[in-house]
Amino acid sequence: MQVSSICLPAKVPVRVKSLHTNPATVNDPTSTAKVAAPKWAQKTITLPPLKRGCHLITSKIVKEVRQELSEYQCGLAHLFLHHTSASLTINENYDYDVRDDTETFLNGIVPEGPSAPWKHTLEGPDDMPAHIKSSMFGCALMIPISNGKLNMGTWQGIWLCEHRDYPTPRTVVVTLNGI
Amino acid sequence: MQVSSICLPAKVPVRVKSLHTNPATVNDPTSTAKVAAPKWAQKTITLPPLKRGCHLITSKIVKEVRQELSEYQCGLAHLFLHHTSASLTINENYDYDVRDDTETFLNGIVPEGPSAPWKHTLEGPDDMPAHIKSSMFGCALMIPISNGKLNMGTWQGIWLCEHRDYPTPRTVVVTLNGI
Amino acid sequence: MQVSSICLPAKVPVRVKSLHTNPATVNDPTSTAKVAAPKWAQKTITLPPLKRGCHLITSKIVKEVRQELSEYQCGLAHLFLHHTSASLTINENYDYDVRDDTETFLNGIVPEGPSAPWKHTLEGPDDMPAHIKSSMFGCALMIPISNGKLNMGTWQGIWLCEHRDYPTPRTVVVTLNGI
């Protein structure tokens, strides 16, 4: 198994096994070490209505927190959707067909319409399926931050999956934490 | 896209785009700034046995950590279930039918009983389906904390989904981190 | 509901309800309290190719971060897979059949082959199913750290689920944060 470290102090070789750890000198007023104090930031983003289906929203999210991200050498970014009929997931960022096929899959395994077995139907035939899909993919993501940027794989992107027929604005709480 | 900030220091207008960030003055013993130091808390909660199905447990969880939550202006709350045959998810907090329909969905897509294709059957016919459902919904949640409370959407609640026929107490490790 | 605290300072009885919280004395240079400053560490691990199916990788992960974990009394460990055709999940750590049955389940609900409805087929018949399975189980985990170790339940383990036919090395970014 290969191991490499990221988020290291400058001038430290990339392949060392030891991790970057901010030294425990915060409590020592006599220390001259420059330790970055842990930082927190939190921001609420309202995405415009998106039609039913899976949408790549990486650039929309990054645009809103690029400046703040740039202040974190090492940390974590949390995205939390305030809704129970949409979801957040990480998946392929290039071919639109992947998002379309994922919507096809979700519609194939969650029954919808007159023959569906749902008791909760007051909010429309697409509502109960939307709740189920929301729990299948989840409403939250946590992504590492390294060197001021979201540290995702080459082909990874952030998706918002809208599960309702009549789209509405969707609220995402972004919380950043790191050094 | 609308953006608003939450978790801001007092007297900062709500609509400013800049995030709340605790200043990096922790290392400066001459600073007079009142910086809230990052805090950690961790607590193990044992939930009583709940029958097979989906259960709203928001109030049970909040009751156990309300006091501690109130000390965090900005942060994250992590819930981690210690089991592989139950799950935690966030979904609708009002209509009981949504929880019932979700249980119906899970039972519909995960085969159970003599015709199911499972090799792992020693612990009963409901055990292997329970493991699968646990990975489908997951055993952990991360929820933002803002102004001393869990920052969830109006209709969101925390669900414990019990996938076994004979319920047992379930352990949840709650970890709070923030300022 | 039973409640117990973990991750407490030494000599504090185990059953007290109050949580462990690191005192807010970091900003007070006159304080003599020994406060552990919040620490961050981040490491990239490359797992060797694993055949299609579910694999228990707890020991592989722990081996790479055991030393660093030992420095955290209380915290969170985040694992983030850099791929969209594999997934990370937490499930049963003992019987191999559970992992095999889970692979059987995934193959049963995600259509694959000539009759599958996918538009995205250029990368092979197993590629689009792999993307869907990746979003079903997710590409990230967050696990509490208590007393220098991952705080999982007795039967819980970390699984890497490889959804492609021709396995490749898989990259996991591990981020540790705590005190």
Description:
Chains A, B, C: InterPro entries: UPF0047_YjbQ-like, YjbQ-like_sf. Chains A, B, C: This is Secondary thiamine-phosphate synthase enzyme. Chains A, B, C: It comes from Glycine max. The structure is a homotrimer of 179-residue chains. The radius of gyration of chain A is 20 Å and the shape is elongated. With 179 residues, chain A is of the alpha+beta class. Mean pLDDT of chain A is 86; it is low at 6-35. Chain A has helices at residues 58-69, 96-109, 127-137, and strands at 2-5, 39-47, 53-56, 74-81, 86-92, 140-146, 149-150, 156-162, 170-178. Strand 2 (39-47) of chain A pairs antiparallel with strand 1 of chain B, so a sheet runs across the interface.
Write a concise keyword list for the protein shown above:
homotrimer, 179 residues, alpha+beta, Jelly Rolls, 5-stranded antiparallel sheet, 3-stranded antiparallel sheet, 3 helices, 9 strands, 21% helix, 32% strand
Tell me briefly what this model is.
The first copy, chain A, is an alpha+beta fold and 179 residues long. Chain A has helices at residues 58-69, 96-109, 127-137, and strands at 2-5, 39-47, 53-56, 74-81, 86-92, 140-146, 149-150, 156-162, 170-178. Chains A, B, C: This is Secondary thiamine-phosphate synthase enzyme.
